[in-house]
Write a structure and sequence with these properties.
The chain is 22% helix and 29% strand. By secondary structure, the protein is an alpha/beta fold.
């Protein structure tokens, strides 16, 4: 099929990356359109911060920016209302996880269910036709023997595959990442050369405007409680378990001759358990909700480098099947702050094997 006959819908956030992605595809001769999604529930009391956040009242400005880019490029632009779906699936999961003492990553769930799921699906149902869906993520998709592999971008410093491991193989088969071969500064240079107004837009930093998670919870759900050591001795008070995560040191409000860190969150008893840094190391973890990309199933132990959070450089480990759709990870060397609710993503060289949600540390 000739490029001009391939229609690609690009999910536009109003930022520089997605703007350059759609501009590059048009320059290459593809038939392109822009799609943006409405996800913010205006009944939620969040005040605008001016930053390019994922969820907040700034959304209107982001959509205006995306529409302006499409006018500049003379391509169609559509906005898809996904407020109810986002509130139900992403915000709902976010609230449940935090109230149960876990630290979720909403971007991973949003990518799988909303951005690469319901957005293109709902667009097609509304009569908007296209062959492929793309975004401005820094990642690559490579077809090998009929299997679509998710790989790190050439500029690994901008690697966003950690956020994308939850995509199903069939989603990858219908997806394109135009920026996989580019670096961030190169993308900004392209935006400037094309005269795109988003060329100097700041990067998105927070999930929620002002990082104000408390606004997503109902009155009475956030309760003060005790901060205790591993023996159960009360050391202080916390302002609500949703404001704490494993490995946290700052903001505890307690004095100690040695630095103390959050070791675990006891949601059942509304307590934050603290300890010294040495107690934060774990030999491994158990992950659930496993999604595999480069293999059909995990039926025997495999070697991989495992990332346990976005900024973690990854650690060599042995991965074994564990229960239904689960995996047991044993690190070659203990790792610090294995956090329930976060994702463990498995890599073999530059290829994503798969990943899952961290259920508990070992």
């Amino acid at each position: 099929m000739k490029r001009g006959k391939i229609r690609i819908a690009i999910g536009l956030s109003g930022g520089v990356d997605s703007s350059v992605a759609v501009a590059l595809l048009k320059e290459e001769g593809y038939d392109v359109i822009g799609l943006s999604m409405e996800i913010f529930d205006s009944s939620v009391d969040l005040r605008g911060s001016g930053k390019h956040t994922c969820y907040g009242p700034e959304e209107k400005e982001h959509i205006k920016s995306a529409a302006a880019i499409c006018r500049e490029l003379a391509i169609p632009f559509y906005v898809i209302d996904l407020k109810k779906e986002f509130t139900r699936h992403v915000i709902g999961n976010f609230r449940r996880e935090y109230l149960n003492g876990r630290t979720p990553n909403p971007c991973i769930l949003c990518n799988r269910l909303i951005k690469f799921g319901l957005l293109p699906e709902k667009a097609r149902k509304s009569g908007i036709n296209f062959d492929l869906f793309g975004t401005g993520h820094y990642a690559r998709i490579v077809e090998s023997n009929g299997r679509f592999l998710l790989k790190k971008p050439l500029d690994v410093s901008k690697d966003q595959t950690y956020f994308l491991y939850g995509l199903a193989p069939e989603q990858l088969s219908r997806t394109i990442f135009p920026l996989g071969d580019y670096g961030k500064e190169e993308v900004r240079d392209i935006a400037r050369s094309l005269g795109l107004k988003t060329s100097d837009n700041p990067e998105s930093q927070d999930f929620v405007t002002g990082n104000d998670y408390g606004s997503l919870f109902k009155p009475g759900e956030i309760k003060n409680g005790d901060i205790v050591n591993e023996k159960g001795d009360i050391l202080g008070r916390h302002r609500g378990i949703i404001y704490y995560t494993v490995g946290q040191r700052k903001g505890l409000g307690i004095s100690s001759p040695t630095p103390l860190y959050v070791k675990s969150i006891d949601a059942e008893n509304n307590r934050i358990v603290v300890s010294d840094k040495g107690s934060l190391f774990s030999k491994g973890l158990v992950a659930s909700n496993l999604n595999l990309i480069s293999i059909d199933k995990l039926d025997k132990p495999a070697r991989a480098r495992v990332k346990i959070r976005l900024q973690h450089e990854g650690a060599q480990a042995t991965i074994s099947p564990y229960g239904k759709k689960g995996a047991k990870v044993v690190f070659d060397e203990p790792q610090i702050s294995v956090t329930p609710g976060q994702s463990a993503v498995f890599y073999v060289d530059d290829t994503v094997l798969g990943g899952g949600i961290i259920k508990r540390s070992l």
